[in-house]
Write a structure and sequence with these properties.
globular, single chain, mainly alpha
Length: 353
């Protein structure tokens, strides 16, 4: 943040704190911004990681639209370029800390895609100069903590807007896939916030029921992908006793569909089509898991082995039908096989979007 910007921060009416109107809050906000800036990567690294997020993370967690995200964050971090100078933030109001928090989580999740499960760099490091640059210039490992810090001024608004819901949803995802950096107590808090906000935002109601959304295809598809995506993500923690979302909430939210650029969450339409195919397939498994869990965990009657075996057989058949041969699934068809093509191979029998 430039000195001139910091000077304006204390004087402009745009910087009047939302909750605390004393002078101390100005200093606290400045400290937060400065602390975040000190740990940011270069401008080039930031944009490369944003690209990796929407290419490799978005297909599995499509809970933000690329165009909407870029429209909010570009004025704050600056336009895309290859400068290797340290990134600076142009924060014009306290509310800008919300997209900053999402940006921090996006680049963190993008950085995870640079390594395999054994924490070795991906093979592209030898052929792609951008990947090599990111490996040689890793981002600070405190992005999750910084995202929490950026949203601290809005603690009382956890469940009042979708943009805040996004933050805590991606915090949950970041904690899940970065266990070494997760803060268990705050992680548990994010589960509770996700649960409450899903209900408060009425994501279990199809968005076409709201007049002001009928012509906003991107928003409609985003809300549908969020509801069904979180609903499917719920089942693993549900079976391990760490459930963060109620399985019994009734819903009439329709499945997302691919209708072209007008409703796509990303600029690459092939990625969007693949994302929806993947989500439709996960929904099939989710519905079967739900039925199996209802029988196995029925407290009003005794579960019968024959019923459990019936669902187990259905699950086995579904795996064969949807995934096919596992060895073939894990083998590259060609050395040039793209990531969307790999996902398509795993969802080749899924319902077409």
């Amino acid at each position: 943040m430039k000195k001139s910007d910091r000077a304006g921060y204390g004087k402009s009416p745009a910087f009047i704190p939302i909750f605390n109107k004393d002078r101390q809050s100005y200093a606290q906000d400045l400290e937060i911004i400065q602390f975040i800036e000190d740990k940011l990567p270069s401008r080039k690294a930031a944009w490369l990681l944003i690209d990796r997020f929407f290419k490799y993370v978005y297909p599995f967690f499509p809970y933000t639209n690329e165009s909407g995200f870029l429209s909010k964050i570009t004025p704050i971090i600056g336009a895309r370029d290859d400068q290797t100078t340290k990134l600076k933030l142009k924060v014009e109001s306290r509310i800008d800390l919300i997209p900053v928090a999402l940006f921090l989580l996006v680049i963190h999740l993008g950085s995870i895609t640079l390594y395999d499960c054994a924490e070795n760099p991906v093979p592209e490091v030898d052929t792609d100069p951008d990947v090599r640059y990111l490996i040689e210039n890793p981002i600070n490992n405190s992005m999750i903590m910084l995202a929490r810090l950026a949203t601290r001024p809005f603690m009382s608004h956890y469940g009042t807007a979708y943009k805040m819901f996004q933050i805590y949803l991606f915090l949950k995802i970041a904690d899940q896939y970065s266990p070494g950096q997760a803060e268990q107590l705050e992680s548990q808090g994010s589960y509770a916030i996700v649960f409450q906000t899903m209900v408060k935002l009425a994501l279990n109601r199809d968005p076409t029921r709201y007049v002001d959304l009928k012509e906003k295809s991107k928003v409609i598809n985003l809300l549908r992908k969020t509801w069904h995506g979180v609903r499917c993500d719920d089942y693993f923690p549900g079976f391990t006793g760490d459930d963060f979302f109620c399985k019994l909430v009734p819903s009439n939210t329709q499945l997302p569909c691919f209708i072209g650029e007008s409703a796509s969450g990303v600029a690459d339409l092939e990625i969007e089509k693949t994302t929806i195919s993947c989500l439709l397939q996960r929904t099939k498994f989710h519905d079967l898991y739900r039925d199996l869990a209802s029988v196995a965990m029925n407290l009003r009657g005794n579960p019968y082995v024959k019923d459990l075996l019936e669902f187990s057989t259905k699950l086995e058949d579904l795996v064969k039908q949807e995934l096919g041969d596992i060895d073939q699934l894990l083998t590259l068809t060609t050395p040039q096989e793209t990531f969307p093509q790999r996902i398509k191979k795993a969802t080749k029998n899924a319902s077409q979007p």
